[in-house]
Model the fold of this input.
Amino acid sequence: MRGQTKPAEFRGEVREFARMLPDGLRHKVMHNLKLEKEDYVAYLKLLEARGWIVGHWPKQYGGCDWTPLQRFIFEEETSEAGAPWLIPFGVNYVGPILYTFGSQAQKDRFLPRIRNSDDWWAQGYSEPGAGSDLAGLRTRAVRDGDHYLVTGQKIWTTYAQWADWIFCLVRTSQEDRPQKGISFLLINMKSSGITIRPIVTMDMCHDVNEVFFDAVRVPVENLVGEEGGGWTYAKVLLSNERVLVAEVGRSTRQLRRLEKMADTTLRGGGPLRGYAPFARRLAELKLRHFVLQSTCYQAVADAMAGSQPGAEASLMKIRGSELQQDIAEAMADALGLAGIVYNAQDLEGMGSAPGIGPFEAPGILKDHLHGRAATIYGGSNEIQRNIIAKLALGL
Done:
């Protein structure tokens, strides 16, 4: 295999690394408490010190040249062990686009700063009226000498409030098919004309935003690849995103937590596991998780053989996001009356605010509420079913 370490040995290395996670950070992740930018950066710095922050990148760009199997093992094991979400916008999304399609100047400028966590990136894709249907985007970039003037709006932009840069799909032409008029542009978030407005979601947290561009001047040198090539680059990026959204390791972690709740939560004088309807529900979730994990490993095997992700990427996105939601809903139901009251202040950390019910209740409810978006982001599941119908069924 391309990486010299055998899969079992590599899995052991990842597990050893995961045991080095700071207890406070692991506690926050395991109990779905609120993470700050500093928490994510601390994890990125641990990965950087281990040489794994961009392990899946080619060695010539500072990576480890991991195989698809090694990358999947890393994602699965770290998530299962309680590592934070590896914020993907730099290391998983724009980085690979830059080293694949970017100019040498762009590679020299941006890739080292992504590897060193010096720049925080946001993703500017979705717009009002153009979410999963990105071909309908209306943010315009008009050429003005050595600059583009960018005007428009992006929405649901995760962690834009922390971002130094944002990579955007913008419309540079109204001619021909809508997809051919889209370009991929890198925009400094400190540029004049950018306004960020927070969106507080139903979990009462601020993770996503609206981003407005009012004649923002962006150097032409920040265009990635060819003008009008953005749709091609976006498809490559979104394919990677949908595989990652399966989040098998996270589902494993949450299922274990649900099983613990089933053994320790009392209903009718006995543990919840002894209640037949809940036991069947738990068994079904475990079976679905096993099937999803097997499907992911088959997709990894296909990738190892040189196959490009097709309909299976959409399938994994659908099944992974639905499983996350159903596990979270089962945990919320297991709380019983303790699941009625939700106070986002309790997410700051155990004991920071007076809690109602078990100390883990706020995090469980946050996960349930926030997870309702899982079937929407990364390309809604309705769109994914259309992709499957087209690629697999020829409809």
In short: The mean pLDDT is 91. The chain has twelve helices and ten strands. The first helix runs from residue 7 to 18. Residues 56 and 66 are 5 Å apart (CA to CA).
